Structures are given as C-alpha cells and as structure tokens.
Amino acid sequence: MRYRVRPMTLADVDVVQRIEHDSFRSPWPADAFRQELTSNRLARYLVVEDGEELVGYAGLWLMVDEAHVTTFAVAPRQRRRGIGEVLLAELMALARRIGASVATLEVRVSNMPARRLYEKYGFMPVGVRRNYYSDDREDALIMTTPELGSREMRGRLAALDRSLEARLRVGSGEGRAAS
Asked: What is the rounded distance in angstroms from the CA atom of residue 95 to the CA atom of residue 62?
C-alpha cells in the first residue's frame, strides 16, 4: 500500500504540530502531544506517511471500554486522497485490538467531509455539545459506533478495508493493465 501507518513517536511531534496548526484554529500545543505520548497510559496515537513524508495523525483514549477519538488531521494539501480514510481504518482496527467495544468522537457540526467519512465507518450522531469549540463557540456533534465486535460492524469494516485497499492499489498503478 502507498501509505504507511505507524505509532506516533516523540520525533514526530514537530511535524504533527505543523499539521495541527495548518488544520485547526485552536491547535493543541506541542507539549500536549509530548504529554500524551509520555504520560497518558490511556492514549494511543498514530501517524500516516506518504513515502517519507508524515501527512496525518490521529489519537484515541481507551476509557474503560470506549475508544474516544481525541484528535484527527490530515495535512491540508494532502486531503481528498484517501489518507484520512486509511488513518481512520487503522484507528478503528487499533480500537478493536485494545479492547474497545465502541468508538466515539466529537466533530464540528459544519465539518461535512469529516462527518461523511465518520458515517461511512459506522459512526452515528448521538448528541450535541453546545458551544464546544472555544475559538468560535461552534457546536460539536457527538458520534458513536455500534458495538465494534458486532457482526454488522465487523462486516462493515472488513468490506471498507477491502474497498480501500483496492482503490489505493489501482490509484498507485498496481493492478492496472499496461496499455
């Protein structure tokens, strides 16, 4: 596959911070990422690379049996290329591996591209956090998945994985007939 997903390390924080600043009006400080990586036993963070370039990251906390997505971003100039979907698919697989029964997140109500991606992966709106975002007081939509171990979700995630893998293989030129 063209993209590689791996655990975030302290060496990634400077690049993650650049993506964070390019993606959010109220970015997390770099120290927050360092603290998450070194001190938060509930936290798991991933990065995605395109070749040698780090192009996105995501994180979650395992709180009892819930994977709470804490952050998710793809470098603005790298968006609309399937990177976010690759990252979300890996985040969902990580959630299942570490024993989460469901995944939940907050997303800006106005962020329709993100909402569509999350819905594709089974997240459903379950509530609203009024005035959630400090920069502009926008509401956050709370979204949660069905049980990750349910037949429905296992089937959905497996089908999405196959589809994504096929799309990226064709997009990278693999599997195409020579003309």
From this structure: 8
How many residues does the structure list for the chain? 179
22-48 tens-digit pLDDT: 998 888 988 999 999 999 999 999 999
Closest CA to 140 of 157, 156, 123: 123
pLDDT digits (tens, 9 = 90+) for 98-132: 999 999 999 999 999 999 999 999 999 999 999 98
Tokens representing residue 80 in the block: 């609309």
Q: Which residues are catalytic?
A: 106, 118
pTM (2 d.p.): 0.88
Cα 89 to Cα 80, 95, 125, 127, 168, distances in angstroms: 15, 10, 19, 23, 13
Quickly name the fold that domain 3-171 has.
Aminopeptidase (3.40.630)
Q: What is the CA radius of gyration of the chain?
A: 16
| 3-state SS assignment for residue 109 | coil
Distance from chain centroid for Cα 82: 12
